[in-house]
Design goal:
The chain contains no helices and 27 strands. By secondary structure, it is an all-beta fold. It has one domain: Methylamine Dehydrogenase, Chain H (7 Propeller), CATH 2.130.10.
Length: 282
């Protein structure tokens, strides 16, 4: 499935079996994986490139280099109004009926398009993940640390830092059971953490920056994409095993997700959305 522009990000809606992508010109497309049909969002898009997407409560949230957040209905497929983010947004994740938007020095909580809380950070942030329990948030930093916080409503208390990363943290994601936290780095490394401990640091196959990662619904496998054009599937219980899709996207991989326990979707600089059937590690 092909667009005319480099694709920056994707997000999968498990309820509708649809993928949403955004290209370098901020065009958002809804892809129906059952039939391959596409629909474009209408209205006024962002004024600069969109970097991340998130789904929550029937809305598609998008953040952009124009320092704004848009909240757009997936039913009407109409772009919402632009809302300033008080700094350039870096990452976005759903959290209950809210979304958390990360800038380089703030964590902003939104309910719809309304700001309900702003948390100052004392380090330069680069990525965020929210534990499915909703009471723990991990924020990756340019300081090569993963800062883990207890979350109680809008109150954040730092629990600990995860150390040992070779580069700054480019992407973070908790497994659906909340047990594990996976991290990707600017230096090609991928790690899996369990609580305060490093579960495995053997996930080293990419040759350059990891751009995206996602947990399989089985909470056992992680898929990663990289600037090196490759998609790799890793196993927690078999850390020395991997499934490699070489040259998945010419120019680099910008986003990955799991469509089901045996299917991965990916996007990249080659203007393509691709799906891959994965044979798990034996």
């Amino acid at each position: 499935m092909v667009t005319l522009k480099k694709i920056n990000a994707l997000v999968y809606d498990r309820n509708s079996h649809k993928v949403y992508t955004v290209d370098i010109d901020s065009n958002i497309i809804e892809w129906n994986l059952d039939g391959g049909h596409t629909s474009h969002f209408e209205g006024t898009p962002h004024g600069n490139s969109v970097t991340k997407l998130a789904l929550n409560g029937g809305n598609l949230y998008s953040i952009s280099l124009d320092d704004t957040l848009k909240v757009s209905s997936v039913t009407s497929r109409e772009f919402g109004a632009s809302n300033g983010t008080d700094g350039q947004p870096i990452d976005i994740k759903p959290c209950g009926d809210h979304v958390l938007v990360l800038t380089n020095n703030k964590l902003i909580t939104y309910h719809g398009s309304e700001v309900v809380h702003t948390q100052a950070l004392n380090f330069e942030a680069s990525s965020i993940a929210v534990n499915p329990s909703g009471n723990e948030v991990a924020i990756g930093g340019k300081d090569k640390l993963i800062h883990v916080y207890n979350k109680n409503g809008n109150n954040y208390t730092q629990k600990h830092n995860l150390t040992g990363s070779q580069g700054y943290i480019t992407c973070l994601e908790y497994s659906s059971n909340g047990r594990y936290l996976a991290s990707g780095e600017s230096t090609r490394h991928v790690k899996c953490w369990e609580g305060k401990e490093l579960k495995t640091g053997h996930w080293v196959f990419h040759s350059t920056m990891v751009t995206s990662l996602a947990w399989c619904p089985d909470d056992e496998h992680v898929v990663t994409g990289s600037v090196d054009t490759n998609v790799v599937v890793w196993s927690v219980s078999k850390p020395m095993k991997r499934v490699v899709i070489n040259g998945a996207h010419y120019g680099g991989v910008s986003g990955v997700c799991w469509v089901d326990p045996n299917t991965v979707a990916s996007v990249g600089d080659d203007c393509c959305l691709k799906t891959w059937t994965i044979t798990k590690h034996q």
